[in-house]
Amino acid sequence: MAKVLTPRSESYSQWYNDLVLKADLAENSAVRGCMVIKPYGYAIWEKMQSVLNRMFKETGHVNAYFPLFIPKSFFSKEANHVEGFAKECAVVTHYRLMNDPNGKGIVVDPDAKLEEELIVRPTSETIIWNTYKNWIQSYRDLPIKCNQWANVVRWEMRTRLFLRTAEFLWQEGHTAHDTKEEAIEETKTMINVYADFAEKYLAVPVIKGVKTANERFAGALDTYTIEALMQDGKALQSGTSHFLGQNFAKAFDVTFTNAEGKIDYVWATSWGVSTRLMGALIMAHSDDNGLVLPPKLAPIQVVIVPIYKSKEELEKISDVAKKIVSKLSDKNIEVKFDDNDKKKPGWKFAEYELKGVPVRLAIGTRDLENGTVEIARRDTLEKNIVAIEGIDKYIIDLLDQIQNNIFTKAFKFRTECTTKVDNYAEFKKVLDEKGGFVLAHWDGTPETEQQIKEETKATIRCIPLNNELEDGKCILTGKPSKQRVIFARAY
Amino acid sequence: MAKVLTPRSESYSQWYNDLVLKADLAENSAVRGCMVIKPYGYAIWEKMQSVLNRMFKETGHVNAYFPLFIPKSFFSKEANHVEGFAKECAVVTHYRLMNDPNGKGIVVDPDAKLEEELIVRPTSETIIWNTYKNWIQSYRDLPIKCNQWANVVRWEMRTRLFLRTAEFLWQEGHTAHDTKEEAIEETKTMINVYADFAEKYLAVPVIKGVKTANERFAGALDTYTIEALMQDGKALQSGTSHFLGQNFAKAFDVTFTNAEGKIDYVWATSWGVSTRLMGALIMAHSDDNGLVLPPKLAPIQVVIVPIYKSKEELEKISDVAKKIVSKLSDKNIEVKFDDNDKKKPGWKFAEYELKGVPVRLAIGTRDLENGTVEIARRDTLEKNIVAIEGIDKYIIDLLDQIQNNIFTKAFKFRTECTTKVDNYAEFKKVLDEKGGFVLAHWDGTPETEQQIKEETKATIRCIPLNNELEDGKCILTGKPSKQRVIFARAY
Predict the structure, then answer these.
(1) A259 touching chain B per CB within 8 A
(2) pLDDT per position as a tens digit, B81-104
(3) Contact B97/A127, CB-based, under 8 Å?
(4) Predicted local distance difference test score (pLDDT) of residue B79
(5) What's the gap in Å between the CA of A246 and the closest CA on chain B?
(6) Do A119 and B131 count as a contact with CB atoms less than 8 A apart?
């Protein structure tokens, strides 16, 4: 069968585009930079949402919904935020269309101009803190721990499906606290939630760390991040959690009376992950045959393909297959029996490989005689003949093994692609020839960071949490440094 | 305790506004016409989503996501659709802001004008059919049955929380079929799904029917609707399902090769319900004390309030309460034990009444001695002393009873507020003095319908499905009619 994907070795970026399209995950829409998330892709996103939603609720958060539009003036209220967010964005200026007086379709009604333009939210700190102002009077009203699932728009010039699109789906948590300590604690709790989710569900190992001032969220005092490594050696920022200090409370005048009766500004955090995680999932595990999905996020975990020559054979196989379906469904395993008569087994095998279904069962008449099935696992492409008796337990174990194996493989790859370097020549050589995370000393200044970025396209991904302290010299300036930071070229 | 709500008898609309705000369901935002859905309101919406999502999946639908923005020209492609939807909407004209050259905050960058304006979707038929064009070649690609959960914007001048807001949340299903019959079947299936949901979950009885041409969705050949009656005698359209014929397929040139090898246009449906259902839920059941929630959609189904004088008493009560919580949680009942020491029992009673929690347990020390608790039901406000032994079964039964009772009460109200009238004077008298659904003969012309609407503000809500045929005369023109239709003043 002809390969449907460009091999990764030929062009990693073409392979990615091919895969997103061919596996029916997403496609570009008629609106520049906006994607259509197709049912199969959306089903994976829904699984992510469901797990994250549970994790958020377990850590004491509730969902709410805030407006899509933000008055332009709100952005000007927080000085750094306006620099970071109020530039490339969709601006609503009018609220009515009319028939073209010249009879050519419809045109914007010039009389329906808004007094103040509205911005389609690129992130919601401003509108939410303007709302929280009315919810908070006393320390008894705190903490507030809201999350919202929403679409946001950032007018990106260069877009790539899931990784960078003008509109994307995400969740954004916004919390309000009476003390600095509690807000910092919340920021850390959420980066830990994200790291757990990435490692246990996406099966993507991540490094937790703090961003440098250059890479901080606009308006934050500290940005925590989880950084993942893709198969092409580039980093992908996969989730961030921001300690916002009192910046937004001051910008929107949100004060509270503390237990001692004194008035103070409220402390804030915000944190988010987006459909970008779909990109991480795809790029971290998949191969030249298609997607490789971790079982915990696979919309179909097991597919059963019958191999038959006649209607009678199919019927016999169906009897057995349906019993297996029922057994697995009882154990909450999502299983599909594909008895579509219009497609051949070979086509189905390739299709489910492309779609990353973790486990495939093939059942032929000889299997029936022997009381066995053929089981193929997507991650290693290994096949085994297995007894039907006790198959549910076998598959539950296998799904666990696959989940673990995918993670272990990604972890091993990351370990191999993490390099300590001690001078700038070596730094550039590793970036060009090997890629991956490069651990190097840095003098701590934004200027050095900026110069390295301009010269090598590598950025500081983060300063890892609980980083090992080690005396060294900045690779660019030779100035003293106390720890290595993680550099990489990134998406 | 002072009543927090304006009584319904004094002002129904003020009562509604009070209730939405005081029960923490939603509030107006800083953006005109856009609401903030607060955590308690959103929790109810999430429950609705979860049930509907299951019902959609059971009827063979999958979720997907399409762009927020629609190119202006797309609206002009379907003649009726442009009249209905491309008028009052949010128009994005620019994609960048810049610092004001005069130093006054930020302004729209005049150089960043879009070549073609983008409309924030008021509904997604156009962008979706433009997408389906690429998904459909042959009858083998059909049916396509996608749903999306999304926000939409219609620039309403007069807004009311949940009932009519500029931005609202909804789901919109969009299906594509190879035959007219299958599309009509789908349209009916979905109005039945909506009716089931309304009656079994919202506990709101609805009349299923077809809209007249005047009231049809812009671009539809037929619009099916479910119509509910609120306590003030006004109707609320609660869900619609549209048979779109081949209108959108023709507008976007979506053809397919049928089984005989001939090329034809694809048949379409669309259907949706929105956060307006929150309005229906609130207005159908609630009373002057607050919300009355049907147990199946209540975020908290049972609340336990301890009545105690000392810490020791609270501890003893807590032991018992926690056992009850655990028993009920095991049965998937959402239960809250409110041991907040800062609020008095009386305050808690009023609060949970306001929030519509279906069942309240109060436990005092005397109850412990007797092995009983006091159970109050929200719908009838009745209280009973019940043995702790076997309380889980008692509560499960009670929740069922409450769900049924709320529906029965609403059904009885609707029956009482449905009136057959045979002349125009009586028609107007009933509308003014009694309200409700008015069953009357109509000559079938849009002109008569329009005149009645102008003179009485009553519209034809629907022609009921399986309507009884009966010869009669139009209340306005005296012309012959074969059936009664349902008139009402509506939200």
Answers:
(1) no
(2) 887 776 899 999 999 999 888 877
(3) no
(4) 76
(5) 21
(6) no
Determine the distance from the C-alpha atom of residue A188 to the mean position of all C-alpha atoms in its chain, rounded to a whole number. Answer: 18
Dist. CA A65–CA B217, nearest whole Å: 27
ipTM field: 0.96
**Pick from A43, A65, A342: CB nearest B169:** A65
- A33-45 average pLDDT score: 98
Q: Which residues of A touch B92 (CB under 8 A)?
A: 90-93, 120
Q: Where in chain B is the domain with CATH 3.30.110.30?
A: 418-488
Global pTM?
0.97
Confidence of residue A83 (pLDDT cuts 50, 70, 90): confident
Query: In CATH terms, is domain B418-488 a member of 3.30.110.30?
Result: yes
CB contact under 8 A, B31 and A130: no
User: Residue B95 and residue A93: Cβ atoms within 8 Å?
Assistant: no
Other CB atoms within 10 A of residue B200 CB:
15
What CATH number does the domain located at B12-65+123-285 have?
3.30.930.10
- Cβ A68–B118 below 8 Å, yes or no? no
Q: Which residues of B touch A151 (CB under 8 A)?
A: 68, 150-151
Which CATH superfamily groups domain A12-69+129-285? Bira Bifunctional Protein; Domain 2 (3.30.930.10)
Which positions in chain B touch A131 (Cβ < 8 Å)? 27, 29-30, 36
Judge whether B204 and B410 are in contact, CB under 8 Å: yes
By three-state DSSP, how is residue A123 classified?
coil
Calculate the dihedral angle through the C-alpha atoms of A473, A477, A483, A486, rounding to the nearest 10 degrees: -130
pLDDT confidence band for A42 (50 / 70 / 90): very high
Instruction: Please judge whether A95 and B98 are an interchain contact, meaning their C-beta atoms are less than 8 angstroms apart.
Output: no
**Domain B296-413 falls in which CATH fold?**
Rossmann fold (3.40.50)
CATH 3.30.930.10, chain A: domain bounds: 12-69+129-285
Cis peptide before A295 (omega within 30 of 0): no
Q: Report mean pLDDT in 10-residue bins for chain B, 491 residues.
A: 83 97 97 96 98 98 98 88 82 93 86 96 97 97 98 93 97 98 98 98 98 94 98 98 97 96 98 98 97 98 97 96 97 97 95 98 95 97 97 97 98 98 98 98 97 98 96 97 98 95
Flag if B34 and A120 touch (Cβ within 8 Å): no
Which residue carries 């570009």 as its tokens?
A28
Other beta carbons less than 10 A from residue A470's beta carbon: 12
Residues of A in contact with B168 (CB under 8 A): none
Residue intervals in chain A for CATH 3.40.50.800: 295-413
Nearest to B65 among A37, A108, A140 (CB): A37
Coil, strand or helix: which one is A292? coil
Looking at the complex, does the CB of residue B278 fall below 8 Å from at least one CB of chain A?
no
Name the CATH superfamily, with its identifier, for domain A295-413: Anticodon-binding domain (3.40.50.800)
Question: Which residues make Cβ contacts (< 8 Å) with residue B296, sequence separation at least 6?
Answer: B47, B51, B200, B201, B203, B403
Q: Is A72 on the interface with B (CB under 8 A)?
A: yes
Q: Which long-range contacts (CB under 8 A, 24 or more apart) does B413-421 make?
A: B413/B229, B413/B231, B414/B205, B414/B229, B417/B229, B417/B233, B418/B229, B420/B484, B421/B475
Establish how many alpha carbons lie within 13 A of residue A45's alpha carbon, considering only the half-sphere containing its beta carbon.
29
- Inform me whether the C-beta atom of residue A79 falls under 8 Å from chain B C-beta atoms: no
pLDDT digits (tens, 9 = 90+) for A262-308: 999 999 999 999 999 999 999 999 999 999 999 999 999 999 999 99
Size of interface A-B (CB pairs under 8 A): 184
